Amino acid sequence: MTAFEATIPPAVEPAPGWSQSLADGAPGIALLHWENARTGTGSEGLARQWFAAMTSGPVTARPDVAGLYRGVPAVGFALHAADHPGYGAALRNFDEHIAVLAQTRLANAHDRIDRAELPVLREFDLISGLTGIGAGLLRRHGHSTLLGQVLGYLVRLTEPVRHDGDLLPGWWCPTGPRGQTTNAWRGGHANLGIAHGISGPLALLATALRRGITVPGQVEAIERITAWLDEWCQSSDGRVWWPGVISRAEWRTAIVRQFSPQRPSWCYGTPGLVRAQQLAALAFADTRRQQTAEDALTGCLRDEHQLALLKDASVCHGWAGLIHATRRVAADAPPGGSLAQLLPGLEARLIDHLHQYGPPAGNGLLEGGTGIQLVQLATNAAPITRWDACLLLEA
Question: Which residues form a coiled coil (predicted)?
């Protein structure tokens, strides 16, 4: 048994009661078993048991709760990834609920913009917001009217807004990244990450554009986001990096108080930020921006100070996420680049970490053993189920 195979304890069984969370519940684990079945390393019967477990009770479609990582979008994402004819009727039912959910969320978001109020993260982010719902729609249907409406909302999100005398980006939030209203976050913040920040909308807008899916203002929205990321790009000691968040005080002084790179995680760090910018560069055939992004990730992977900041093996903020993001960036980089050459060493370090510290305590996709195993299964080929569409990493 390898370190990866040991990450999900044998006691985990597809019994009723598992949550509807793609992050740490049955949908993510079902994806793993279906990927196993598709690659010939697991049982389709076991995968179907997990799908039954995640639909054994009512699945929430509440607008204040449901998003890509919870409720009908999460379960629908997993069902679609299975690509099994037996799930067709259930998927069509989920499509109807997702459409109502998306329309409700869109109406609320547009009303908020019309009132010239600032958004909360869960309005637009990948994990809970409309970017995540859009990612699910893109994976499920490709081009659709509803996806176009989500993209149109994201275009509006990027339009500047005046607040308390400052002209702020439209994704500026009125509180801190965890909803704090303390003095440190007086005036709110802007989030750069792919999980909760503006790199998520950037990745979705760019991926849609690459697939020929366009709405008015989409190109300009991508340009606004990339220009803003350029503005906050930091360079120190030969390292190129971005902060995870910007406070109002930093905005007003144009000085980042963070003096060195954050941990190189998928969720907030260089790997996710680079992938979003690479996707934008590919959509625009901008070789200069593409090279700049890829060089930033190469520098990150060669910087032991940054790698030492990784304290766990997970997809969200650990070694597995770093590795899988690097794979996706390397696959779209010019042949013979250094990123692909660095991957075997990173994969070995993940296994070393698991041997030294053991597997994560949880079993989920984002922070537990499920995600690590999914990354391991993709060592030699892209995921068959395309599960990483939920991370906005696939092209």
Answer: none
